[in-house]
From TrEMBL:
Protein name (Swiss-Prot/TrEMBL): Phospholipid-binding protein, PBP family
Organism: Flavobacterium frigoris
InterPro entries: PEBP, PEBP-like_sf, YbhB_YbcL/LppC-like
TM helices/strands, residue ranges: none
Lineage, uppermost ranks: Bacteria, Pseudomonadati, Bacteroidota, Flavobacteriia, Flavobacteriales
Length: 173
C-alpha cells in the first residue's frame, strides 16, 4: 500500500512539473516598443507627419522572444471619423531590435489610402492617437501579396503571434 501511494505521489509531481513547463513555454512576454523620436503618449514630431518629411520614426523593440522568426508593424489611428485609419503595415521584418527611421524594413501592404508606404499622421482636426503596434511572429508571412490590407494581415498573423506591444504617439495639426 505504501509503495502504491509513493508511486502516485511521484506521478502527481511529474504531472505538475510537466504542467508548469508547458505553462512557462506558452506564456509570452509583452514587447516593449519605444522610439528615439517621442515617448509613449507624447507628441510625434512633425517630420514624421504629413506636415513634415512624412517618414516613419525609428522604433526600438525590446523583449523579443527567442523563437521570433519575423516582425510585423501596423500603425493606425482609431480616432479617425471614418473608423480605424491604417497609416502603415509591413511584415516579414527581420527580428531585430531597431526599425530604422525612413526605412522599408519588410513587405509593405496597402494602407487606408490604398498606398504601399508609410503615410504619417495628418488629422483634420483635434489631437489623434497613433498606435505603432509591433508583433513578434513564429514564422514569416511571405505568401501575402503587397495588396494585403490591415484586416487581411491581422487575420494571417493571428495564429503566429507570440508577443506584441505598442507605442502610442499623439499628433495635432
Amino acid at each position: 500500500m505504501l509503495r502504491s501511494t509513493n508511486k502516485q505521489l511521484i506521478r502527481i509531481k511529474n504531472i505538475n512539473l510537466i504542467t508548469l513547463f508547458i505553462m512557462a513555454k506558452t506564456v509570452s512576454t509583452t514587447l516593449i516598443v519605444k522610439s528615439s523620436a517621442f515617448k509613449n503618449n507624447e507628441m510625434i514630431p512633425s517630420q514624421y507627419t504629413c506636415n513634415g518629411l512624412n517618414i516613419n520614426p525609428e522604433l526600438i523593440i525590446e523583449e523579443l522572444p527567442a523563437n521570433t522568426k519575423s516582425l510585423a508593424i501596423i500603425v493606425d489611428d482609431a480616432d479617425a471619423s471614418s473608423g480605424i485609419y491604417c497609416h502603415w503595415l509591413v511584415w516579414d521584418i527581420l527580428p531585430e531590435r531597431i526599425v530604422e527611421e525612413d526605412s522599408v524594413p519588410g513587405i509593405q501592404g496597402r494602407n487606408t489610402m490604398g498606398e504601399n508606404r508609410y503615410t504619417g499622421p495628418c488629422p483634420p482636426s483635434g489631437t489623434h492617437h497613433y498606435h505603432f503596434k509591433v508583433y513578434a511572429l513564429d514564422s514569416k508571412l511571405s505568401a501575402l501579396p503587397p495588396s494585403t490590407n490591415e484586416k487581411e494581415l491581422t487575420a494571417a498573423m493571428k495564429p503566429h503571434i507570440i508577443s506584441s506591444g505598442e507605442l502610442i504617439g499623439l499628433y495635432k495639426k
